[in-house]
Amino acid sequence: MNRLFPSRIRLSRALPLLAVLVLMLTALRLASDATSAVSGSGDYYVWVIAAAGLALLILVVALLRRIWRIVRALRARSPGSRLSARLAIVFVALSVPPAIIVYWFSLQFLSDSIDSWFDVRLETAMEDALELGQVYLESRERQALDLTRRLSRRLSAESGTRRDQALEDFIDDTRARHAAVFDSGGRILHAATLVPRAVIPDLPHETVLLRVLSGGAYSRAEPTANNGLRIRALAPIPNNALSSGSFVQAVFAVPNDYNDLANNVEREYLRYEQLGFLRTALKQSYILILSLVLLFGILLAMLLAMNTARRLVAPIGRLAAATEEVAAGHYNRQLDVPSDDELGFLVESFNRMTSELQAARLDQQASSNEIDAQRRYLQTLLQSLTSGVLSLTNDGLIRTANASASQILSLQTADLVGRPVSDLAQEHPSLQPLVHLIEEHSSSAEWRSELVLNPGPQPLVLMCRGTLLPGQDGGLVVVFDDTTVLNQAQRDAAWGEVARRLAHEVKNPLTPIQLAAERLRHKFMARLDDTDQQVFARLTQTIVAQVESLKLMVDAFSDYARGPRLELKSQSLHSIIGEAVELFASAELSVIAELCQPEPAVAIDAVRIRQLLNNVLKNAQEATEDTANPTVWVKTRLSVKADQPGLALNVEDNGPGLPSGADSRLFEPYATTKERGTGLGLAIVRKIVEEHGGRVELGASKRGGAKVSCWFPLIQPTDEQAS
Amino acid sequence: MIEQLYIANAIAVHLGYLLAPPGIPGHLSVQSATGTYRADRQRLDLTIDLDFARQVKRALERGVPVTLTWEARLQNADQWWWQADIRHAEGEVVVRFHSLSKHWLVASTHGNEELSFASRRALMSALSRWHGLDLGTDDWTQLESNAKAAVRVELDISALPAPLRLPAWINHQWRMDTGWVPITLQADRAEAS
What is d(CA A155, CA A432) in angstroms, rounded to the nearest whole number? Predict the structure, then answer.
């Protein structure tokens, strides 16, 4: 099937050429036949004309196809189409006018030439020559008629064989070729010929015979079969008894010299006359031939013009199309070099340019890939950093923020990137210190500062470092770490050290002090009067009581300072809660336990949890001392924090609640709202919870009092347990 | 001005081909066509009604020879057209004017002699009867039982001088054709008698 297409293409190209050939041959054939009176091509003349018409049609169709292609290309705005159309128009404009001018002058020339054939003097001469010949013939006709009449008169007087003799004598005397006597029916009665056994010619037409039979005579020159002339004369034989209605016919030859001359005159005259008659038709034929040639020339010129324009513009069109492809980013486009001229040089330059562009593009792509890899590496690095990193432009626009920054600031990355840093302060007031810090150090080359944010119940301690980036578009990089836990650990360690020293340094002298005070009382009490005894007893009692108080405080410090020697095991928290509730529930305080079922498994140290519950419930008991219907609620429930399941233990009361701003501070050692508190109860609670891997928060209860929320992680089931 | 006249003339000449007035047409028809087998040859006798159109007469008088062709065929009506011809014969009659002797000359392919006529009336009278046209040696009545014979006479435009052919193709006055006319085939008179 594919092989058919080239054949079709070749056929479509060959047809116009074939048409041109046919037109040319037709024109030549017609031109050669134009002036011939009789042509050998007469039988197929109509086919020649039809072939010319078909060839013209093919050429016109081919031309219309080319024009349609150009129009279609123009409409489609194909590359090079406009240039091709312009070139075709220019070529046609250059080639058609000369053809028309040549056609025009050829017509004029031919018309003048044909007219010049018909000269008036020549025509007169021809007519005179013919007339001369005719005059001569007429004289010969009259002479022949006289002789024939003379013969007829003699024949009327003769009869029988004497008539034959009269005819013979006539032939001898006049050198006539034939002489014969006919009856009224046209039968030969007597005859004589100059040449023996010569054929007696047919009688003339019956109209002539009628005239002769009615008494008239006839004498006319006649052409013969061998292009000669003869004179036939007929005369009636006067009536006699022997032959009524008979007549004599004599045929005379015209001299050969005259015959030749007369034939020449006749032939040329007829030729001239024929040409005169054909003058208009001849002009029409020449106009037809010239028109064919003109059409052939114009159509061929137009076809060649379009083909030439197409061939000239084709490389430019391909170049334009390739340029568009290059503009669209296809740099690997290469064109075939059409020739070694300027166009070829242009195409070669184009190919070189695209090659270089392609190479540059590959280089740029490689660089881009490298940059991308670096960027990805940097991003991965930034994302893996535990420190928060923010980069800002000189205008204060946040360019990048890593995951740690989002996590520390509790914001989505999308809320940070691409926004002015000042917007953060407006939308998140808790971040104002950070924003102010950044704005304050926006022009500092390098800075370091610690600040505390209060985004929630827990304060957030950030250690911030900033560095100006070099370059015109440098901007600023801020790196910050959440040091809240670190600070807490440091404080806890410090407090532990303080507590241990305090317990060690203070507790040791307390017992001798207490013993000394009791010995003083025992030894000197009896020696004093009543008044002094009372004073002495009160003073020693005060010493002993204060020492007891100091012992309690030191024990508390000792508990706080004690290291994490936990014995964690899975045991029921609810049963420990039940014991505590039992211990604290009384007529003055109602303790309500709301425990979730089934009880989840947690790993706890029962002693420390009991201590935790004692501290918390004791705080609640003391807080509700002045409250009507003092009540404490102890609740447990399943809770998930940071995707980790756990058990939440909430203790609420209906006391006066916490003073404002004291929520998290109360977990610090030596922080208390009570007049006689050590300030270590909640600190120990926090320590116990954290030792269990949990968290603790202090807040307000819905019932108006305080709320302590503890959270313990559940025991993670092993694979076997899970299955 | 001269160029404009030439343009007008050229256009008029071209249009003349297409818009030429029909003029007074001539007439050519076969009145009778009789085929007879005599003297060992099949002969055809035609009676023709012939009258040349004015332009044809003018052409004749100006020395243009005019050719009339005749064509006779015997066809089997049951066969396809390309297989139908059983016998076929043709000939022509050329008429011309001899201006010196003012005679009309008639030459035909079926007769070696050239007839001359002193007047056009005599010429036309002679041309109305074509006697003894030779159709060959076979007796057409004996060839096929269901065969049909026909004759056609026409003015041969292709025999005209070349410049005159194209106008003649277009001009109605030159288009003279009898079409196919059935020939009445008769048995040999001698045998019949």
Answer: 167
Per residue in A602-646, pLDDT tens? Answer: 889 888 888 889 889 988 888 888 888 899 999 999 988 878 889
Asked if B100's CB is within 8 angstroms of A137's CB, the reply is yes
ipTM here: 0.71
Task: Check if B116 contacts A (Cβ < 8 Å).
Answer: yes
Q: Per residue, what are the HEC states of A663-699? A: CCHHHCCCCCCCCCCCCCHHHHHHHHHHHCCCEEEEE
Are the CB atoms for A246 and A237 separated by under 8 Å?
yes
Report which of A219, A179, A185 is spatially closest to residue A198, judged by C-alpha positions. A179
What's the pLDDT tens digit per position in A162-207? 888 888 899 888 888 889 888 888 888 888 888 776 666 677 777 7
Residue with tokens 């004589």: A192
- When pLDDT is cut at 50, 70 and 90, the band that residue B1 belongs to is very low
User: d(Cα A251, Cα A176) in Å, to the nearest integer?
Assistant: 6
Chain B contact present for A130, CB below 8 A: yes
pLDDT in tens, A308-357: 887 777 777 788 888 888 888 888 778 887 777 887 888 888 888 888 88
> Between chains, do B122 and A207 touch, taking CB under 8 Å as contact?
yes
Cβ-based neighbour number of residue A65 at 10 Å? 13
Q: Which residues pair with B51 in a beta bridge?
A: B27
Convert B175-185 to b/e letters by CB count within 10 Å (16 or more is b): bbebebbebeb
Q: What is the pTM of this model?
A: 0.50
CB < 8 Å to A283, chain B: 13
Pull the structure tokens for residue A190. Answer: 């007597």
Mapping DSSP onto H, E and C, the string for A142-198 reads HHHHHHHHHHHHHHHHCCCHHHHHHHHHHHHHHCCCEEEEECCCCCEEEEEECCCCC
Distance from CA of B159 to the nearest CA of A (A): 6
| A96 lies within 8 A of chain B by CB | no
| Relative orientation angle of helices A256-277 and A120-157, to the nearest 10 degrees | 130
Residue of A nearest to B125 (CA): A205
The lowest-confidence range among A91-95, A417-421, A499-503, A697-701 is: A499-503
CA dist., res. A42 & res. A44, Å (int): 6
Cβ proximity of A678 and A672 under 8 Å: yes
Query: Residue A260 is encoded by which pair of tokens?
Result: 């030749």
* Cβ–Cβ < 8 Å for A62, A20: no
Do residues A84 and A313 lie in contact, with contact meaning Cβ atoms separated by under 8 Å? yes
Inform me whether the C-beta atom of residue B57 falls under 8 Å from chain A C-beta atoms. no
**B138-145, Cβ contacts within 8 angstroms, sequence gap of 24 or more:** B138/B42, B138/B87, B139/B37, B139/B42, B139/B188, B140/B35, B140/B37, B140/B42, B140/B74, B140/B87, B140/B185, B141/B35, B141/B37, B141/B185, B141/B186, B141/B187, B143/B74, B143/B86, B143/B87, B144/B74, B144/B76, B144/B86
CA A37 to chain centre: 70
Q: DSSP state, A586?
A: -
Q: How many Å apart are CA A51 and CA A21, to the nearest integer? A: 11
Chain A 247-306, CB below 8 Å of chain B: which residues?
262, 265-266, 269-271, 273-274, 276-278, 280-285, 287-288, 291
Bridge pairing between strands A388-392 and A603-604: unpaired
- Touching A: B residues 60-79, CB under 8 Å: 62-65
Could you give the dihedral angle defined by the CA atoms of residues A537, A542, A543 and A545, in that order, rounded to the nearest 10 degrees? 120
Rg (CA), chain B: 20
Residue type at position A567: E
For chain A, the average pLDDT equals 82
